[in-house]
């Protein structure tokens, strides 16, 4: 049976069959998360470890009770006003205070300096840095939500846009359920490069199961006339690739929270529908205990060798 305990620094340690990982706050080591995810039985909707929650309670401002609406109906993944009925029913039936455990991997890709890191930092830390610090390889944030009463997490992978770090970053694309392609609304070339970013991300993933978002950044720097010109092109492209289009400003915070809430809600909905399809018997909120002797579940992927100069 899994156990966990507190270290003197308040960190929690999860001994998971040889692959130990330590997490504190919202950061979880990638290896640890990956190995944890691999060990979970298919269809797992929640996890209790030794009868206690692995995570602290969800922040009040991360509770999603209604389906957040799309930014533009003309370029939306879907335009229904409510969560899918099956999903709502499934969640309602299990609203019993059971702690859930459900994670979707989200990767954010796009040209260098379009504002990927700032976008994630505005949402996760409510912070904005006007100085550019290139992301080297990848960064990672975990953001926790409660959707329709069920705990749900987004693993947000902030990847490097600089060519020389792209090789490292692309090794983290695999297993993404959501791909966010960011471009700068003041830089038409960055929109032109979005197609290449998409192709690279989809090489590592099943295109039929990935939800795509095309996000225009730095909206605050654009005049309304300039913005509306690029929006036409961006929406056209978004429709072509079946992505949902958004425009945001990390400086002012415009649409940032709305955008990530929409991502979380749609990812959650898709996940639950997939779960319901896969297993009619398993219910959302089921408590699953992992037996440490089932070692065949625990193969951990070795990281690809660093191929960048
Ligand atoms: N005015 C304005 N500037 C922004 C906004 N978002 C980002 N920036 C600025 O754009 C620059 C690049 O932002 P980053 O978030 O670091 O860009 P990035 O896409 O993560 O870049 P890489 O990590 O190299 O791929 C920084 O100087 C930011 O302050 C925004 O919404 N408005
Ligand atoms: Mg960055």
TrEMBL record:
Gene3D superfamilies: P-loop containing nucleotide triphosphate hydrolases (3.40.50.300). It is a lipid-anchor. It catalyses: GTP + H2O = GDP + phosphate + H(+). It is an enzyme of class 3 (hydrolase). GO terms for molecular function: G protein activity; GTP binding; metal ion binding. It is found in: Cell projection, Cilium; Cytoplasm, Cytoskeleton, Microtubule organizing center, Centrosome, Centriole; Cytoplasmic vesicle, Phagosome membrane; Golgi apparatus. Its EC number is 3.6.5.2. Its main location: other. Interacts with RILP. The GTP-bound form interacts with REP15. This is Ras-related protein Rab-34. It comes from Poecilia mexicana.
């Amino acid at each position: 049976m899994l156990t966990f305990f507190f270290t003197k620094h308040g960190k929690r340690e999860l001994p998971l069959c040889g692959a130990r990982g330590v997490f504190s706050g919202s950061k979880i080591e990638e290896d640890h998360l990956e190995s944890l995810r691999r060990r979970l039985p298919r269809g797992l909707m929640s996890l209790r470890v030794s009868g206690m929650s692995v995570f602290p309670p969800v922040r009040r401002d991360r509770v999603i009770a209604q389906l957040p609406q799309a930014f533009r109906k003309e370029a939306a993944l879907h335009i229904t006003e409510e969560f899918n009925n099956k999903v709502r029913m499934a969640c309602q039936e299990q609203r019993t205070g059971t702690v859930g455990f459900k994670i979707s991997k989200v990767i954010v890709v796009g040209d260098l300096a379009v504002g990927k890191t700032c976008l994630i930092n505005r949402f996760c830390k409510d912070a904005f840095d006007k100085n550019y610090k290139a992301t080297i390889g990848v960064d990672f944030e975990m953001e926790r939500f409660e959707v329709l009463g069920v705990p749900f997490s987004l693993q947000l992978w902030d990847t490097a846009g600089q060519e020389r770090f792209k090789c490292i970053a692309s090794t983290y694309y695999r297993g993404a359920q959501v791909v966010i392609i960011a471009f700068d609304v003041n830089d038409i070339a960055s929109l032109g490069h979005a197609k290449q970013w998409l192709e690279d991300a989809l090489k590592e993933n099943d295109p039929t199961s990935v939800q795509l978002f095309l996000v225009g950044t730095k909206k605050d720097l654009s005049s309304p006339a300039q913005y509306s010109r690029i929006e036409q092109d961006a929406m056209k492209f978004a429709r072509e690739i079946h992505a949902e289009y958004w425009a945001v400003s990390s400086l002012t915070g415009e649409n940032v929270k709305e955008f990530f809430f929409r991502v979380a809600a749609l990812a959650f909905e898709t996940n639950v529908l997939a779960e319901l399809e896969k297993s009619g018997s398993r219910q959302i909120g089921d408590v699953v205990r992992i037996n440490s002797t089932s070692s065949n579940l625990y193969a951990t992927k070795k990281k690809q060798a660093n191929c960048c100069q």
